Amino acid sequence: MDAATSALIIATFVACFVEMVEATTIVMAMGYTRSWRSALTGTFAALGVLAVVTLAAGYALATWLPESALQLAIGGLLLIFGLQWLRKAILRSSGRKAVHDEDAIYREEVEAAKAAGEAKQGLDMFAFMVSFKGVFLEGMEVVFIVLTFGLNANNIPAAGVGAAAAVVIVLGIAIALRRPLSMINENLLKYGVGLLLASFGTYWAVEGIGIFRDGRESLGWPGHDLMILALVAAWFLLSRIFVTALRKPAVPAAAVPVEVQK
């Protein structure tokens, strides 16, 4: 396995790991509260649909678009996607957005499951649909990551291996611990994934601008793939500048109302 393939697997693994943590929390809430059979049925049904979507979309994109157009389209989408993750990470780091809490999400899902009434014998549709929806929505982001990284590296199987490894490891940890994976610093992981997505998106989008030149050949970066490291450093520096600028100042004790202090 060469360095490029290893980097591809690691990048997709880290990005997909975060999404799988969130999906697993939803499935565990449905399983423990209502029906494991229905929750797991919904999970595998969603995974089946996601596999079909991945194969169909991957074939269509790889067949219909020239390389430079593919880089521009996927790079642009990846950049937008990555910037959304970075925006949330910046707001959380600056104290302007609540930190992601898997335990709180688990409690909310459990309360929703209890409020839906008694679990029915056979297939419990509430547990099935909630699990299916949670895995499918989180999984669509995984599909997007696998396709973007895999197509641009011309190695979708390697990207799929990274995603599958993330699914297996997250499920294994959850089964072993039998509780939400709140011990994992998901906010830090999302920050890192946002940096990766924004950096790779910038790299590929700029390469794809070559579609507008004669010959429609991709543009080349000086230093080639090493520029990705420079882009990661640049996006990290920019994000820290925004965190510093947006950070909420500490509220002096004297300014806090007496009722709140109590």
Secondary structure topology:
Layout: H1 3-33, H2 36-64, H3 67-93, H4 102-115, H5 125-152, H6 156-177, H7 186-208, H8 227-246, H9 258-261
Helix pairs in contact: 1-2, 1-4, 1-5, 1-6, 1-7, 2-5, 3-5, 3-7, 3-8, 5-6, 7-8
Q: How would you sum up this structure in a few lines?
A:
The protein is mainly α. The protein has 9 helices and no strands.
Task: Explain this structure.
By secondary structure, the chain is mainly α. The protein has helices spanning 3-33, 36-64, 67-93, 102-115, 125-152, 156-177, 186-208, 227-246, 258-261. α3 packs antiparallel against α7 (186-208) and α3 (67-93) runs parallel beside α8. The longest helix is centred in the N-terminal third of the chain and has 31 residues, at 3-33. 38% of the residues are buried.
Instruction: Give the class from helix and strand content and strand pairing.
Output: mainly alpha
Total number of helices: 9
- Strand percentage lies at under 5%
- What is the averaged pLDDT score? 80
User: What order do the SSEs take from the amino end to the carboxyl end, as H and E?
Assistant: HHHHHHHHH
Helix content estimate: over 70%
Tell me, what's the shape?
A: globular
Q: How far is it from the N-terminal to the C-terminal residue, by CA?
A: 61 Å
Query: What is the tally of beta strands?
Result: 0
Please state the CA-atom Rg, rounded to the nearest Å: 21 Å
What's the assembly state of these chains?
single chain
Main sheet: strands, sense, barrel: none
Uncertain ranges: 258-262
